[in-house]
Amino acid sequence: MKAMMIGAAALLTTMAAASPATAQANVMKECAAKYQAAKAGKTLPAGQTWIQYLAQCRGTMKAAAPAVAAAPVAAKTVAARTVATTTTTRTNVPVAARPPGQRTPGQIAEVSRQKQCGTQWKADKAAGKTGSLTWPQYWSACSKRLKG
Q: Which of 18, 57, 102, 124 would bridge 31 by S-S if both were Cys, CB 3.0 to 4.6 A apart?
């Protein structure tokens, strides 16, 4: 189990290095270097702005790199499955075993408290009993009171 967690952590670290944000930053740097070189070498088309050049450069780089981009996606799905099967909630029900959209018991209790506090807030506000409390302050105090 520990070896699997270490393996998943290593995979996630590798994925972080090849994340879409990092890839975009690298594309931006490469395009900026090409733009500056074209500008210095006076090979930049007349009137072309940085934005136009960047769009064109990204398009050519995106067309040239679809095979390279496929590998991180496969690694990402494997890591997501590994993490999902090892992560548990407070009720010790594996996340992968819970159907999507199903709430945990804690989430259900919180929604119930919020509805009760909302009803009380409306009644107290109409009666002028809230004083200077705002809804977030009222909700915090009410939730603590209902939790016991």
A: 57
1-11 per-position pLDDT tens digit: 455 445 544 44
Q: Tell me if 86 sits within 8 A of 4, measured CB to CB.
A: yes
Q: Which backbone phi and psi does 79 adopt, to 5 degrees?
A: -65, -40
pLDDT range class, residue 63, cuts 50, 70, 90: confident
First to last CA, the chain: 38
With H, G, I as helix, E, B as strand and everything else as coil, classify residue 63: helix
Query: Which residues have CB under 8 Å from 51's CB, separation 6+?
Result: none
Q: Find out whether 117 and 142 touch, Cβ atoms under 8 Å.
A: yes
| Structure token pair of residue 140 | 């915090």
- Return the C-alpha torsion angle 5, 83, 93, 113, nearest 10: 120
